[in-house]
Amino acid sequence: MSENSVKRSHGVHVVHSGSQQAAPLLLIHGSGASGACWAPMVPALAERHHVVAIDLPGLGHSAPVTSYEIPDQAARVAEMIDSLDLGPLTVVGHSSGGYVATSLAEQRPDLVTAMTLISTGPRMAALLPQPALIRALSGPPLGRLTWALRSDKLIRKGINATCARPVELPDDLIADLRGLPYRDFVEVLRCNGEYISYRSVPERLTILDVPLLVIFGAADPRWDPASAQEYAVVPGARIEMLPGIGHIAPLEAPEAAAKLVLEFTA
Q1: Taking the CB of residue 226, how many other CB atoms lie within 10 A of it?
Q2: pLDDT recorded at residue 178
Q3: Scanning 34, 35, 41, 263, which has the fewest C-beta atoms within 10 Å of its C-beta?
Q4: How far apart are CA 210 and CA 51, in angstroms?
Q5: Do the beta carbons of residue 261 and residue 92 sit within 8 Å?
Q6: How confident is the model at residue 1 (pLDDT cuts 50, 70, 90)?
Q7: Are 28 and 97 in contact (CB under 8 A)?
Q8: pLDDT tens, 151-181?
Q9: Mean pLDDT of the 88-96 span
Q10: Could you read off the pLDDT of 4-38 as tens digits, one per residue?
Q11: Alpha-carbon distances, residue 225 vs 128, 198, 218, 260 (angstroms)
């Protein structure tokens, strides 16, 4: 398979990088984003893995869906893995992508050999008061209007509000976010909250026999960095904190994040 080949399976947009003879590594992005958020990490990961970066159903270049419920998203991802004969594999989820990864392991433990969660909030109580721009984009009373008026500059500013320092953002990621309808973005957030309100991620993972690496930015402004320690209840879990890094380690510290993932998969 050539590097950066693109396919769509069961409506899921898939970008393959690296050799298909290498161990598969599935990358799942967070809320309202797309697989483009992984771009800075992919070259290092693809040196040792068959990297599979997806756009979650209904997002990015994937086909529209009628449900953003986390179990439904995970079921679609499982169908994609089966159709491309990719499993079993290691799954890496960023932010709410970790919820899809967890649900995938709950539904299909045969497909998930190990899991890395990057900046994945463990439960709703760990959510910090959000920056003003994030509140304006995602909630009442100005959410719909702000979203309708958003520009590339505003989107970049909104993403950077979740980082500990300004970062260079892939143009593809901005374009994918610009194409997402407001009602879909709000529904994604609602479904994420519902999933972890019913049962926390650490609680879900304690009953699964899946090796776990947790990576958290020590300066995350979205989720309380101290909440990363809640994953310590998962037997054998490895928790790594990145000093001076905010919520989006794949963009803020791609080299450090990739190194930790590669050490874990080795």
Answers
A1: 12
A2: 83
A3: 263
A4: 20
A5: yes
A6: very low
A7: yes
A8: 788 888 888 989 998 898 999 999 888 888 8
A9: 97
A10: 667 777 789 999 999 999 999 999 999 989 999 99
A11: 10, 22, 5, 18
CA distance 256 to 250: 9
- In this prediction the pTM is 0.93
pLDDT at 134: 67
Q: Is the pLDDT of residue 123 over 90?
A: yes
Domain ranges across the chain: 5-127+189-265
CA 174 – CA 168 distance, rounded (Å): 11
Residues across the chain: 266
Output b/e per residue, 60-85; b: 16+ Cβ within 10 A: bbbeebeebbbbbbbbbbbbbbeebe
**Cα angle: 18, vertex 20, 41; to 5 degrees:** 30
List 17's β-bridge partners, or say none.
51
In the block, which residue shows the tokens 């919520």?
247
pLDDT of residue 143: 59
Contact 231, 258 (CB under 8 A): no
Torsion of CA 74, 76, 77, 78, to 10 degrees: 90
CA distance to 95, 161, 191, per residue, from 127 (Å): 12, 15, 15
